[in-house]
Every structure is written in structure tokens, then in C-alpha cells.
Amino acid sequence: MSTTADFEFYAELLKRQHAIEGTIAGYKAKIVDSERELEECLEMAPIAALSSMGQLWIFLMWRHDHSILTFPNEITSEIFLHCLPVYSDHFFAGTSRSTSDPLRAPMLLLHVCREWRSIAVSTPALWERLYLDLWNLPDGFCEADNLEQFLANWLARARARPLSLFLEVSEDDGKQGSLCTILDRLSSRTQVLKLAYVSFWIQHYEGNTPDFPLLRNLSLASSDEYMGNVALEGYPIQICSVASQLQELELDAVAPSLFAIPWETLAVFTGRCLRYDDCVDVLRQAPSLVECTLEETYPDSFTTGTPAVSHPHLKSLKVFGDCTIFRWLTLPALEKLEVDLDSDGMDESLLPFIIRSASSLLKLSSANLLPLESLSAMAALTDLTLVDLFRSNEYLDEFFRHFDRTNHPRFLPQLQVLEFTGRFPLVNTILVDALCSRSAPTQDGRARLRSFRQIWVDGTPLQFNFEQGVGLALAELAGKGMDIYIGPKRKI
Question: What's the half-sphere exposure (Cβ side, CA atoms, 13 Å) at 72?
């Protein structure tokens, strides 16, 4: 072949090479662009779909770090538990729960890969807290066969674990039967039962009585309207009448008379938005009650005829809101009292009640300024917490003058823990003299103050210069073993 022919052939090959390289470069550019679009899609779609941080973490961990598959199954199971969504709704706020939502744990974990599905299915703790919002479940989910299959699968995954069941009930008549199916199917395994929006189904409930042999904690919550005078056939509702282990009951705007409750086993009661006579009736019907919390109680037309009640076993009482309820209560065994009350009527209601219960009261927490003569009656008190006390310097000075054992040896003689919470620092010689007088027990049995805490709320300066003598005296008390803290609330 001639030299000219060789050169032309080489030139043709070089031209084809450049063309192919150009085509490849174009394809590579398109691949890079496509990969970038795919990456953006993979990153953005789950962020939009998965609202909780736990579920977003699941996606990112799977997408970017497959080394999770090398973890021991026990560690992966524990990680999965932290991915359960925590809801901030009104009735179940702050509770982590499992749902039927395919975009949330634990259901989401079943569809990532076979390894994760196997771990999730073999982790019973993932399935022991079931939350179902019957308002928003699709109609197909509530069909009899589908619902039965879902519940059967859930029970199998929970294995022998007792269940916590959270239900928000729909006002859709077509879904009323779903509630009965769920309760009948799960009642024998349910330890905690919380029903919200019960006003939407209570008049449709057929009155069957499922057996709850494990039920220990029951919550019934209505909508904003109080359910007190509801006309029902088959009243009261028998839904939880067979619950021999029931220990804790919470009623939110639901009259206790609407339901047949095994009151004799009850140890803890919480009532919100109830009438005075409802609360008194609960105390009268629950002889084993030891803890009671009442929030936002209010009167009705029958209040004036409500007979008083003396409960022989109640040891802990918390009351927030109206203080009139105290007029009907006598609690001779009361050991712990926490109050945050409207000031109207406090002198006529709270203070006589405290005097009636003072002989047994050991711990008192109050967001109200209590008269010193009432505190003087609390000879057994060991722990005292007063919130927002520093709004009254005159009261505060008078309190510490009484607290000085040198001047008033019979004032709170057994107090061992004292805590104040307020807006402004108060450290002066009146305080120090009172603390010094309490630094050692007395020969006649008066107790030593073990702990003093003065907590400054937000907005208080973090730096405070004590007078030299005051600072030295506090340091000496701390050296003798008194636990002293003065400053802002510590962050955990």
C-alpha cells in the first residue's frame, strides 16, 4: 500500500476515533445529569413523604450507609424502636406509637430490604403499641376481611407482648363496626387502652362486653364538649366492665357515670373538665384509690347538694384550676399535695382542707402564696416546694423569719427539703440565718434541713454577686452537708 493511502486510512481512523469519543462524552454527560436528577429525586421524595425525623433517618441510613446490615440484630432492633413516630396530638401527646401508615415505622421497615423486614418482624417491642385513627383509615382497610388480616398479622408480630391500644374513633357510621371488631379481637391482649373522641361512637355502640383480663390503664377522652348528660339505652356502657386488673383511669370531659367501671380495683385517677359532683363520686366509689389528679373542675346545678366525702386511703392529690372542690373533701391519709389554683375562694376552700389534712401531710407543692398560719399547722411536713414565690418580697421575708428556728421553733419542725422557684434572686442575711438555724437536728426531735434550692426562672441574670458574709456562710453550710443550690434551672 502506498504512503498516501496509508496516511488517508490513518486520518479516517483518527476522525472516527474523535467522533466515537465525542459520542461517549455526550453519553457520559447525559449519565451524569441523569444520576444528579436521580439523586435529587431520591433525596427529596422521602423528605416530603416522611414527616418524622425517625423515618427520615431510616431512609438516609439505608440510602447512604449499607454497613447497618453488619450490626448485630439486637442493636438494629434497638435503633428501630427509636424510629417509632412520636405524636403531638391533644389526647396522646408525647407518646411513641406504631401505626398502619406504610410511610412510618414499623410498617416502613418491612419494605426496605429482606434483612430489615426479618429484623422488624422478629422485634415484638415494635408492635406492642398500636395507634389507629379511624377518622383517616381508608375504607378498604376497614372492610371485615382486610381488618381481620391486619389484626392477625399484628398480633403474630407482637407475640406474647401485652398491647397498648390507642384509638381515635370516627364519626362515620360506616366505621362504627370497626371499633367493635378491634376491641373484640385485641381485648384479651390489651394492657393499656386509650379511646379518643368517644362522643362520636358512644350512642352507636351496641353494648357488647369484651373481656379485658390484662387491662391496667384506661383513658376515655371526649371532644371539647363535656359528656355528662347523655341519654343512652343500656346505660351505663359496659365496654370495660370486665377488667379485674384495672389500676389507672383517666377521664377527659367524660362523665364517670356513663361507663361501668370496676371502681373497687382503681388505684390512680385523673379527671379533666369534670364537674365537682363527678369528682366526689369517683372518690366515693373507689375505696382503694391512692393517687388522684383533678384539672379544670367546675360546678353544675347540683353542686350545692353534693355530700362531702372522706377518703381513708388517698395519699397523693393534685388539683389545678378551681379550688372549690376542696370544700367537699377530707383526706386523713393524705401525704402529698400539689396545687396550682385560681385565687378566688382559696381562703374559704383550700385552707380549711389543709388544716383538716395537716396531720398526715408530708410533701406540699404550691403555686399559690399560702398563709403562714396554715403552714404552721403542718407539723409533719418534710418537703415544701413553692413556685413563683418571689413576686412578694414582703411575704418571703416573713416566711424566712418564721423559718428561723431561733425565733419560731415550732414552725415546720420536720421540714427537710425546701425549694423555691421565682423570677428574682433573693440571698440575704434573713435567709442565711434561717438556714443556719436548721443545719442540725435538735434534741427534742426537730429535723435538720438537708436540701435548699432556689431556682431562678428564665430571664433572671445568670450572674449574681453575694455579699461576702452571706457567701461564706452558705459555703460553710454546704461544707457541713447541706445540699444548697441557688441559680437558674439546670438543663438535663
Answer: 3
pTM: 0.79
Instruction: Let me know: does 256 contact 292? Beta carbons within 8 Å.
Output: no
427: exposed, middle or buried (C-beta count within 10 Å: 0-12, 13-18, 19+)? Answer: middle
List the domain boundaries for the chain.
Answer: 271-361, 375-492
Nearest partner of 110 among 153, 143, 146, judged by Cα:
153
CA nearest neighbour of 323 among 351, 300, 291: 351
C-alpha cell at 268: 390512680
One-letter amino acid at 250 equals E
Q: pLDDT per residue over 154-191, tens digit each?
A: 998 889 899 998 888 766 556 667 777 888 888 899 99
